[in-house]
Write a structure and sequence with these properties.
By secondary structure, the chain is an alpha+beta fold. Helices cover 18% and strands 57% of the residues.
């Protein structure tokens, strides 16, 4: 009986640890800053990497800041090329575990890649934008 109890206790401990580690590995909560922005349109690709110059323009990682809060809300502040925008909304996860940002009736699915969030945005008119945000 003691062997059975030990085996059950060990199995239960393993399950609890697996759940705890799984929950920790997909934590989206935190502050993210701009890592890079890639735009593809009409066969032309432009990529900006935060802190590096491109055609005389350097974009700071502070040009776009996203804060994912533990109360399932988010805020984003953007100041790119003189265009400023502050947005807020709620967040959840989908069945695949991806982050879903919701605001004004629109949802954006965001992939977590290590400590980076990757936005794939179809901007229409044959333009696609990939925005990569680094967790700070």
């Amino acid at each position: 009986m003691k062997k059975i109890l030990t085996a059950v206790t060990a199995a239960l401990a393993a399950v609890i640890l697996a759940v705890v580690f799984a929950a920790c590995s997909t934590s989206y909560v935190g502050t993210y800053k701009l890592g890079s922005m890639k735009m593809v349109s009409g066969g032309m690709t432009i990529e900006y990497v935060a802190g590096q110059a491109y055609n005389g323009v350097t974009i700071s990682e502070d040009a776009c800041t996203l804060e994912i809060k533990d109360d399932e809300t988010w805020t984003m502040s953007m100041n790119l090329a003189g265009i400023t925008n502050d947005t807020e909304g709620t967040w959840s996860t989908n069945d695949d575990g991806d982050l879903v940002l919701s605001a004004g009736g629109d949802d954006i699915v965001v992939k977590l890649d290590g400590k980076q969030l990757v936005f794939e945005i179809d901007a229409g008119s044959d333009m696609n934008i990939t925005l990569t945000m680094n967790k700070k």
